[in-house]
Every structure is written in C-alpha cells, then in structure tokens.
Specification:
Rossmann fold, two-stranded parallel ribbon, alpha/beta, 15 strands, seven-stranded parallel beta sheet, about 300 residues, about 40% helix, 10 helices
Length: about 300
C-alpha cells in the first residue's frame, strides 16, 4: 500500500531535509505544497497552495494520508507571520480533516515556552508562554494541530547547512564584542538539521508515536561554553583571542538587540529532555554536537564570509 505524504516548507531549512528523508522510503508518494505552482496545474511532485491565502488551500489534502507541516513565517511583519502561522495552519488543518488525512505532524519550536530557564524539562512540564510575536503564532499553530489529534515536534537549537540564526547569531555576537565570552554555563538542547529531518520523517510514518507534543533534540545537552568554543575553533575567532565576562559583554552589545538575544541565550538553560521520543521511534539521535558541527563548519565559514 502506498502512503500519500504532503510536506509544507519542503524547500526550507528543515522541510528540505524531511522531504529528502521521506523520498527515500519505499511505498511513500511525496508531494510538496508550493505557492509557486499555478492553480489548476499541479504535477506529480507539487500541490498549489499559499498558507497566507487560505482560499488557495482548498483541496490541497486530497489523496493525502500524512501531512508534515514544516512551513513557518519567522520574523518580519507580525500580521504576515500571524496569517501564515496561525490562520494558515488553521486552514490547512481544516483541509486535512476534511480530506481524511490520518496523521498530521507539525514542526514547531521549543520557543513557545518563552525565555526560561528550562533544566531537564519534560513534555507537559512547562507552560506555553511565548515571548515574541513569531512564537505566539507558532503556539497558536500548535493548538490547531493538537486539537485535531496531531503530533507537534519542538526542537530548540537547530544547526547545520542553511542555518541563518543559531551559529550566525553567535558569530554576530562575538563580532560585536570583538571577543568571546567567559562564564556562560547554560545548557541547551541541540540537534543537527540532517538528524532532525530523519526524525521528523520517522515520526510521520511511525505506527508507534501517537498524538501530543514532543521535544526533538540530542539527549545530551550542550553547554554554552562548548557552543562558543566550537564557533571559535571551526568558524571564526574574534578579537585575536580576547575574552570578556558576561557583564562586560552586555554593556558592549547594548545597541544590538540580536546580539543581546544571543547573549541572553548563552546564560539561561534551555534543556528539554524527551528520551522516550527516540525510543518510541527506534531512531538514532545522531552523533552529537561536536561531530555534526565540525562537518557543517566549512559551510558556515563560506556563508559568513560572503555576508
């Protein structure tokens, strides 16, 4: 029996890895939702539809057994973000229910919980308390999926080729400071994007994982000091090895909201524990941060040099 699977955001950072992972599965027919496909002219690989315009989603889930929703609006105009993440997801889920889709998976973010600290938090232990417009709309998207009996997956820090936020943000902070930072003891849940793509694909097709929300990260949290050391060793060492403490860093970064955001991240635990996710999937969580980051470091060096 062939499973019809629809992926949204299939050309994005995470969605492209999910699409690649499911395309390698026997008995799975994969299609992607694309706003660039003219209405009335679908092909074997794409379904026309724009999350920002719910009217275009009518019939998008016809013949679909599994919906994997990876598309998200991040940053920018709050009204546009709300249109895509909240109302767009609501309309998409309604189409999925109408079309008889039997499994809905949404790739969200642990940022729906807010600023922290979170130390070894397990599913159901932390309240939904988003601190930004983007996170609020993604929390709303989660609710639409969960109310329909779907599955929500929440990674925290995702790194790898195509990352425009985590590692570039740390490099930007260190450039702003002309130094690296000492005294950063926070622990973070981290996962590389290739492993995340495989995990989402496995969750979408697993007969063992039910509805609800799960955290998706490597079981071993990564200290902020290790994140900084890896950036300095493999990507860019600022200020010829200069170091500053957190208080000095905060003063130097005072004029840069993005730098202050990443500095705050380095000083507050964001560790979410969900070992049961990997056991239920019988899926490997990957090699861990040190090895996976070293493999993607050449891409980061090239990307940041170009910037």
């Amino acid at each position: 029996m062939t499973v019809g699977l629809l992926v949204t955001g299939a050309t994005g950072f995470i969605g492209s890895r999910v699409a690649a992972a499911v395309r390698g599965r026997t008995g799975v027919r994969v299609r992607s939702l694309s706003r660039r496909t003219p209405p009335g002219r679908p092909d074997a690989a794409t379904v026309p539809g724009d999350l920002a315009d719910p009217r275009t989603l009518r019939g998008a889930c016809a013949g679909v057994d599994v919906l994997v929703h990876c598309a998200s609006g991040v940053g920018g105009d709050p009204r546009t973000v709300a249109a895509v993440n909240d109302r767009g997801t609501e309309a998409l889920v309604e189409e999925a229910v109408r079309g008889g889709v039997r499994r809905i998976v949404y790739v969200s973010t642990a940022a729906v919980h807010g600023r922290g600290p979170f130390h070894g938090v397990r599913p159901g232990e932390a309240p939904i308390a988003p601190a930004s417009a983007t996170s609020r709309t993604r929390a709303a998207a989660e609710r639409h999926v969960l109310d329909a009996g779907g599955l929500v997956l929440r990674p925290h820090l995702v790194h790898g080729e195509g990352d425009r936020w985590v590692i570039p943000g740390l490099v930007g902070l260190l450039r702003e400071l002309s130094a690296t930072v000492t005294g950063c003891a926070a622990l973070h849940s981290v996962i590389d994007v290739e492993t995340l793509g495989r995990a989402v694909a496995a969750a979408a097709l697993s007969p063992h994982l039910g509805s609800g929300a799960h955290y998706v990260g490597h079981p071993d949290p990564v200290p902020a000091s290790e994140l900084l050391a890896a950036v300095c060793e493999h990507v860019e060492r600022p200020g010829e090895g200069a170091v500053v403490d957190v208080a000095t860093a905060r003063d130097r970064a005072a004029g840069s909201p993005r730098a202050l955001h990443h500095l705050g991240m380095l000083t507050v635990d964001h560790w979410f524990a969900d070992d049961g996710f990997w056991k239920d999937l019988d899926c490997s969580p990957g090699e861990g941060f040190a090895r996976t980051f070293a493999r993607s470091a050449p891409w980061y060096r090239s990307h940041l040099t170009a910037r």
